[in-house]
Structure formats: C-alpha cells, structure tokens
Design goal:
- The chain is of the alpha/beta class and 206 residues long.
- 42% of the residues lie in helices and 13% in strands.
- The protein has 2 domains: 49 residues, RecR Domain 1 (Helicase, Ruva Protein, domain 3, Orthogonal Bundle); 142 residues, Dna Topoisomerase Vi A Subunit, Chain: A, domain 2 (3-Layer(aba) Sandwich), CATH 3.40.1360.
- Strands 4-3-5-6-7 form a 5-stranded mixed β-sheet. A two-stranded antiparallel ribbon has the order 1-2.
- Helix 6 links the parallel strand 5 and strand 6.
- Helix 1 packs across helix 2.
- It is elongated and about 65 Å long.
- 25% of the residues are buried.
C-alpha cells in the first residue's frame, strides 16, 4: 500500500497489528480520526493509555477488573457456592449475557496446548484448587470451548478435583464442536447452562 504520508503510514502500521484489522481497514480508521476534532482523538488515546496502566486482575477470579475485586466477585447476591471455570474474560461476558448464571467465575487465562508450549502450570489451576479448599464450593461448572484444547483442559482439571466432594458439571451439548463461547448465540449458550450435565456423563457419551 502506497501511502504518501509517513505519519499516516505509521498510524496505519500500528492499527493493522490489531487482530482482524488489515491495512485497508486501518487506513479507514486513521482517515476517519483525521476528520474528527482533536479532542476525539485525544480521548481515544487517553482511554487506551489509562486502560493499559490501570487494568488489573481480580484477586479472586483472575478476570480483568478495574479494582482488586471485580464487580461479580464483590456482588453479595451472587451464589458463592457455584464457580464457572472459563478460559478468559470473553467467556465471562458471553455467559453473563445469557442471564442464566448467578454464580462466580474462575478465569484460567489460557488452555492446555502442548503444541503451543502451554502446560497446566501456566493456567490458574492451583488458584482454583485453593479456592475450593478454602471456601464452601458445592459445584464447579466447566464452560470451556468445544475444542481439543478445551476438552484436554477440562479433563485435566476434572482429575485434580477428584479429591473434593463437589459436583462437577459441564455445558450440555448445545455448543457445536470447535466453537468458542463468545461466538455462540445467547439462547443456545443459556440453554446449555440451564441444562448442564454431570461432567462424568459427558465423558461416557464422547
């Protein structure tokens, strides 16, 4: 792409590093911002800088949060005995959008993937075990992607949870194989939560 301005080119190169943003789309963004007043661009830049400097991980569930304790973990109306295990904050938002889950979350931060060099030690699994040992947890719900990595992660954690006297469930089979939760429609995902099944039963059927 031949861009006559070095300043525009630099901005396009940075924006095109974002996932799903090609050079042409990045150029559209840059030209759009140039048409706006200076305050608009400053607000965008400042919000991104503030985000990077101030965002943190919730000290309980490890989801991204504005404060030490996220709004879900600090909500006394949530069911403290039910924990939904997810990969990242995108899955938290997907489950929350269904309005069918009133428990807490535990964000692993990734999935087990030997080919990518991601082992169990790089996930927040020990932290999950600590939460179960030190709280009156009655049920763990796996809301992990229907992928090889998701299944591997779920089974590994399931084995770690065998020593606890708790109910272990997983989403019912409404989510298609290979799907990420963030792409599932709210009705299907909500139904999968309401009709969740015992994790052991899911192993028998696969």
């Amino acid at each position: 792409m031949n861009i006559p301005s070095k300043l525009i080119e630099a901005a396009v190169n940075e924006l095109s590093k974002l996932p799903g943003v090609g050079k042409r789309m990045a150029l559209r963004f840059v030209l759009h911002l140039l048409k706006k007043d200076e305050q608009t661009t400053e607000n965008l830049a400042n919000s991104l800088i503030k985000l990077k400097k101030e965002i943190q991980f919730c000290k309980v569930c490890y989801s991204l949060s504005d404060n030490e304790l996220c709004s879900i973990c600090s909500n006394p109306k949530r069911n403290q005995n039910l924990i939904c295990v997810v990969e990242d904050i995108r899955d938290v938002m997907a489950v929350e959008n269904t309005h069918q889950f009133l428990g807490l979350y535990h964000v692993l931060g990734s999935l087990i993937s030997p080919i990518d060099g991601v082992g169990p030690d790089k996930l927040k699994i020990k932290e999950l075990l600590y939460r179960i040992e030190n709280n009156e947890v009655e049920e763990i719900l796996f809301a992990l992607p229907a992928t090889v990595e998701g299944d591997t992660t779920g089974f590994y954690i399931f084995r770690q949870l065998q020593k606890f006297n708790i109910k272990i469930t997983t989403l019912s089979k409404g989510i298609s194989i290979g799907d990420q939760l963030e792409y599932a429609d709210e009705t299907t995902l909500g139904r999968s939560i309401v009709n969740r099944m015992l994790y052991e039963d899911s192993l028998v059927k696969t």
